[in-house]
């Protein structure tokens, strides 16, 4: 829809994928393109919202009329999201945030040594930003949306994740070798904390984005 039903609202969208550095030249990353988050930012702006897009490592052009804040790691993304969420009506966490980061950062490039096995990479947990913003709402009635990529038992795992994270809506994608990542299309089910289930047929990421905003607008009323 192009109705200005988000006019006067501030929405925060995270997009892309975090990169967790191992040394100055290497990182642990993921395959998120950022396209779904950018589609959410564009459609929210088209519906009249003030949009803060927290963008992690996407390489996509800044959408017009959107405030873009860059974040590299999960810790940086958390800082940027919490800051922007302070006066937000809705927060949509479309970014693929690394669950773990290397426990240590080597300030010099890690080198291979002749005849020696490599050191194991030790990981520590990253903060769960979605769970945190859901638990500590910056304002009453703030609507929080998460994303989940599942490979099997999509709905059951989605329901469990929605409850665990404490968000209002969870967009569940089935991912596979050739699905979702980097593509222009998406297919999903949006689960609501009230038990609702909104299937979104295979189609452009804008269509899924508009369905998400329809559901958000319904909850903001
Ligand atoms: O637990 P999982 O990574 O599957 O959850 C995905 C959802 O949680 C996404 O909305 C993602 O942005 C968010 N997330 C987060 N902080 C993390 C991991 C995921 O906010 N450390």
From TrEMBL:
Domain spans labelled DNA/pantothenate metabolism flavoprotein C-terminal: 6-217
Keyword match Ribonucleoprotein: no
Catalytic activity: (R)-4'-phosphopantothenate + L-cysteine + CTP = N-[(R)-4-phosphopantothenoyl]-L-cysteine + CMP + diphosphate + H(+); N-[(R)-4-phosphopantothenoyl]-L-cysteine + H(+) = (R)-4'-phosphopantetheine + CO2
EC number from the UniProt entry: 4.1.1.36, 6.3.2.5
UniProt KW keywords: Decarboxylase, Flavoprotein, FMN, Ligase, Lyase, Magnesium, Metal-binding, Multifunctional enzyme
The protein's required cofactors: FMN; Mg(2+)
Keyword Ligase: yes
Pathway it works in: Cofactor biosynthesis; coenzyme A biosynthesis; CoA from (R)-pantothenate: step 3/5; Cofactor biosynthesis; coenzyme A biosynthesis; CoA from (R)-pantothenate: step 2/5
This protein's name: Coenzyme A biosynthesis bifunctional protein CoaBC
Organism: Streptomyces rameus
Source species taxonomy: Bacteria, Bacillati, Actinomycetota, Actinomycetes, Kitasatosporales
